[in-house]
């Protein structure tokens, strides 16, 4: 029979894929987590995780065991939380409010919501697109419980989770632009054109520098064009030849239109999309939704 500490250690390690973070969440030492997992693997008779000096990954058997155990564990956890809340006269959270900032992130959240509703009858999920001009505002207003968004995010009141997408970058240019005929561009080339940006009043400076740099790697200034509030404005400005914009390469699948050309970068850092939630806490139902997302997310 699987003991509770074995179950929790296994499922947390399957989520984190990192012994140190798992130990922190369990409030035990890393060696204690290793000991529990080794003992569980001996009882089962086969490895559940592949370990090396760089990463931890589930074996096929480990992935199947996680998929078999997780729904029951989440149901038990949610049931206990509901019983405790009811005894204290507190209303139990049954609605998970989800934000996303790119179409492919939204697709993943919709798929997760469909599975979550089947697994957790009586619960629901609302999903909304987060505008680039205010990536943190909805969460800080208490309107979003968990969000899949562009990293980096380094804020004291927000906790970041795993990266689910790592996308190469392209430069979106008008078809009349000299770069449109090139096979690829470099970050240094940004100094030779005008960059359409996002209004940054509500955006951390480090985030803007990552996506809309003010200088090239050699230190040349990058000419700054209009500061827009919504993504459709960026598409209009670029298609009319006002400037260019850095985008995810995958954006071409969703935003291709006459007058636009997507040219790959050969040296730009990737765009990382990860989960984040308020540091003040994550409820059992929100964690259950996050685990559902991680189940169906692309391999990280």
Automatic annotation (TrEMBL):
Q: GO molecular-function annotation terms? A: DNA binding; DNA-binding transcription factor activity
Q: Which Pfam families does the UniProt record give?
A: HTH_1, LysR_substrate
Give UniProt keywords alphabetically: DNA-binding, Transcription, Transcription regulation
Which Gene3D superfamilies does the record associate with it? Periplasmic binding protein-like II (3.40.190.10), Winged helix-like DNA-binding domain superfamily/Winged helix DNA-binding domain (1.10.10.10)
HTH lysR-type domain ranges (all copies): 1-59
Name the domain of life this protein comes from: Bacteria
Keyword Transcription on this protein? yes
Q: Which InterPro entries match?
A: LysR_HTH_N, LysR_subst-bd, WH-like_DNA-bd_sf, WH_DNA-bd_sf
GO cellular component terms given for this protein: protein-DNA complex
Q: Which family does it belong to?
A: Belongs to the LysR transcriptional regulatory family.
- Recorded protein name is LysR family transcriptional regulator
């Amino acid at each position: 029979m699987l003991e509770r500490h074995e179950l929790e250690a296994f499922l947390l390690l399957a989520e984190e894929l990192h012994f140190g973070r798992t130990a922190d969440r369990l409030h035990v030492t890393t060696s204690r987590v290793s000991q529990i997992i080794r003992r569980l693997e001996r009882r089962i008779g086969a490895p559940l995780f592949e370990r090396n000096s760089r990463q931890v990954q589930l074996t096929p058997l480990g992935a199947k065991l996680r998929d078999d155990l997780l729904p029951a564990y989440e149901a038990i956890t949610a049931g206990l939380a509901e019983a405790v809340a009811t005894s204290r006269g507190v209303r139990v959270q049954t609605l998970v409010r989800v934000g996303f900032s790119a179409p492919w992130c939204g697709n993943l959240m919709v798929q997760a919501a469909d599975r979550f509703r089947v697994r957790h009858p009586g619960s629901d999920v609302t999903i909304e697109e987060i505008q680039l001009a205010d990536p943190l505002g909805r969460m800080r207003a208490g309107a979003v419980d968990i969000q899949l968004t562009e990293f980096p995010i380094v804020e004291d009141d927000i906790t970041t989770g795993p990266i689910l997408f790592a996308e190469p970058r392209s430069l979106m240019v008008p078809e009349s632009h000299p770069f449109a005929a090139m096979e690829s561009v470099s970050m240094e080339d940004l100094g030779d054109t005008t960059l359409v940006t996002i209004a940054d009043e509500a955006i951390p400076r480090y985030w803007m520098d990552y996506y809309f740099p003010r200088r090239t790697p050699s230190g040349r200034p990058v000419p700054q064009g209009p500061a827009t509030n919504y993504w459709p404005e960026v598409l209009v400005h670029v298609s009319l030849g006002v400037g260019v914009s850095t985008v995810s390469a995958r954006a071409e699948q969703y935003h291709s239109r006459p007058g636009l050309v997507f040219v790959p970068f050969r040296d730009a850092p990737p765009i990382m999309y990860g989960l984040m939630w308020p540091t003040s806490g994550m409820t059992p139902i929100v964690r259950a939704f996050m685990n559902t997302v991680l189940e169906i997310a692309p391999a990280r």
